[in-house]
Amino acid sequence: MFDQVAGAYDRTNDVLSLGQDRLWRIAATRAIDPKPGERILDLAAGTGASAVSLARSGADIVAADFSPGMIAEGERRYGRGAAGGGIPNIRFVEADATDLPFEDDAFDVVTISFGLRNVNDPKKALAEMLRVTAPGGRLLISEFSHPPLPAFAALYRFYNDRVLPRVARLVSSNAEAYDYLNESIRDWPDQRTLATWIREAGWTDVAHRDLSFGIVALHRAVKPRA
Question: Is 204 marked as a binding-site residue?
C-alpha cells in the first residue's frame, strides 16, 4: 500500500492536513534539537521529508522505512544519486522497526513520525528503539492522537469520516490507502496510553505535548544511562 502512494505521498499529506504537517515537522525538529555530528535514526521516514529537516543541522541521518517504494522515492529525491548530488549526510535503509538491522547503542536520537501506529507490534518496536539508542540518548515520537476537548474531537471526527475520504479520492494515487489512514487514527490509543507503553519499554523521563489541539502529540523520552 505504501509503495503505491510513495510518489504523491507528501503532496497528499499536505493537502489532507491543510498544511499542518509542515508545522508538525518543524515542531518535531525543534524538539529533537539535532546537533552537528549526532547520529539520528529516522524511522518510518517515508520519502525523507523529516530526514531532510534533521539533516540541515549537520547531523548524520539514517532514514529507514519498511516500504521499498518509499525508500526508492527518497533515494530519487535526496540520495547521493539524486539530481544535484543529493544530501550527503542522509542514508536510506529498508528496515523493519520490530527487528532493526543496527547494533546496540548506535544512535544518539531515534525518532518516528506518524509511523508507529502502522507497525504490527508497536511495543516491540519501542523496545528495539531503546536497544539501538545510546545510553542517555533521546526518543521523539510524532503521532496522531485524540483531541481532549469533546467539541473539537467531534469536529475532527467529522472531518476524518466525511471530508478526508472525498478529498483523498481527488488528490491521492490510492484513495483506499487513506481509508486505512482514517481507521488507524481512530483505533490508535490516546496520549496517556502511548506514554505508558513507552515507560514499559524501559524509557525514562517520558513526557508528551499536544499539537493542533491534540490531533497530534509529540512524545519524548530518554534511555537510562545505567
Answer: no
Q: Is 97 annotated as a binding residue?
A: yes
The stretches of the chain forming alpha helices (DSSP H) are 2-5, 9-16, 20-32, 49-55, 68-78, 122-132, 150-158, 164-171, 175-187, 191-200
Any binding-site annotation on 187? no
The residue count of the chain comes to 226
Enter the C-alpha cell of residue 213. Answer: 489541539
The answer to whether the annotation marks 98 as part of a ligand binding site is no
* Structure-block grid coordinates of residue 208: 508528551
How many Cα atoms are found within 13 Å in the side-chain-facing hemisphere of 145?
Answer: 26
Rounded distance between C-alpha atoms, residue 189 and residue 180, angstroms? 16
* Residues in CB range of 165: below 8 A, 6 or more apart: 175, 178, 179, 182
Q: Could you report the per-residue pLDDT of 88-139, keeping only the tens digit for each?
A: 999 999 999 999 999 999 999 999 999 999 999 999 999 999 999 999 999 9
- pTM higher than 0.85 for the full model? yes
Q: Comparing 80 with 23, which gets the higher pLDDT?
A: 23
**Dihedral sign for Cα atoms in the order 213, 217, 218, 221:** positive
Domains and CATH numbers, the chain: 2-222 (3.40.50.150)
47 labeled binding residue: yes
For 35-64, write each residue's pLDDT tens digit: 999 999 999 998 899 999 999 999 999 999
Question: Contact 61/86 with Cβ under 8 angstroms?
Answer: no
Specify the pLDDT at position 3.
Answer: 54
